[in-house]
């Protein structure tokens, strides 16, 4: 179980790029790692609680056995004081048996106490690693989202560079062509207008010339008379 944390630490610390290159979603994977950590911590907490309870049971049994040994010794003294040496002997024999039992319980209790301490230390270590990974997860998720954004922008820019940009260039060429056609039609219109003006002026000048000639003829006729 503790090895799991080392594996997770390796993944989130050095394999983010590998995750990004695969079909896996780093954000979802990191969330799953956190969920797995929480599950393992919960299991270890239950194991620690069970071990502490076992330690307390052994402690109580040891203390009861030690107390019983002390009582047997007191009873042996009382038997001797009453002059019953045989009873005192039998009490001491039982006391020795209880002493062996108490020492065995003491050893078991001390081992349980040591194991409880080790498990509690491991649990604290796991929680520290969990908190570290949880904080790192937020940073990695932010980096992942930034990488996605950059990738999307690059793809969009690439699309603009090939498709949209090419389309803009074609439209620009069409606009230039339309502008050229408009300028040409304007020039033709101006040319046609100039010709019409000259012809109109010519017609106007002819009328004046005819009228002038008529007046001259009229004056000449008058002079002759």
Polypeptide structure, described:
The chain has helices at residues 2-14, 16-21, 26-81, 85-224. The chain has one domain. The protein has 4 helices and no strands. The protein starts with a helix and ends with a helix. It has 225 residues and is mainly alpha-helical. The longest helix has 140 residues, at 85-224. Helix 1 (2-14) packs parallel to helix 4 (85-224) and helix 3 packs antiparallel against helix 4.
User: What is the number of E strands?
Assistant: 0
Q: H/E element string?
A: HHHH
Using the alpha-carbon principal axes, give the shape.
rod-shaped
SS element count, helices = 4
Number of folding domains? 1
- Which range does the strand content fall in? under 5%
| N- to C-terminal distance | 145 Å
- Global Rg: 55 Å
Largest sheet: none
Task: Show unreliable segments.
Answer: none
| Helix/strand structural class | mainly alpha
Compute the average pLDDT: 79
Percent helix range: over 70%
């Amino acid at each position: 179980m503790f090895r799991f944390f080392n594996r997770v630490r390796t993944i989130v610390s050095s394999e983010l790029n590998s995750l990004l290159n695969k079909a896996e979603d780093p954000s979802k994977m990191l969330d799953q790692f956190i969920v797995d950590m929480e599950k393992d911590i919960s299991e270890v907490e239950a194991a620690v609680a069970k071990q502490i309870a076992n330690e307390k049971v052994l402690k109580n049994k040891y203390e009861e056995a030690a107390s019983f040994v002390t009582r047997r010794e007191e009873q042996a003294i009382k038997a001797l004081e009453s002059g019953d040496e045989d009873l005192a002997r039998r009490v001491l024999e039982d006391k020795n048996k209880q002493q062996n039992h108490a020492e065995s319980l003491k050893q078991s209790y001390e081992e349980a106490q040591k194991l409880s301490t080790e498990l509690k230390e491991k649990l604290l270590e796991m929680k520290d690693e969990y908190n570290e990974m949880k904080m790192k997860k937020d940073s990695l998720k932010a980096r992942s989202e930034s990488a996605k954004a950059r990738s999307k922008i690059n793809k969009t820019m690439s699309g603009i560079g090939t498709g949209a940009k090419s389309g803009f260039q074609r439209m620009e060429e069409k606009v230039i062509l339309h502008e050229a056609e408009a300028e040409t039609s304007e020039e033709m219109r101006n040319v046609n207008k100039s010709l019409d003006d000259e012809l109109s002026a010519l017609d106007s000048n002819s009328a004046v010339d005819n009228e002038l000639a008529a007046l001259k003829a009229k004056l000449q006729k008058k002079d002759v008379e």
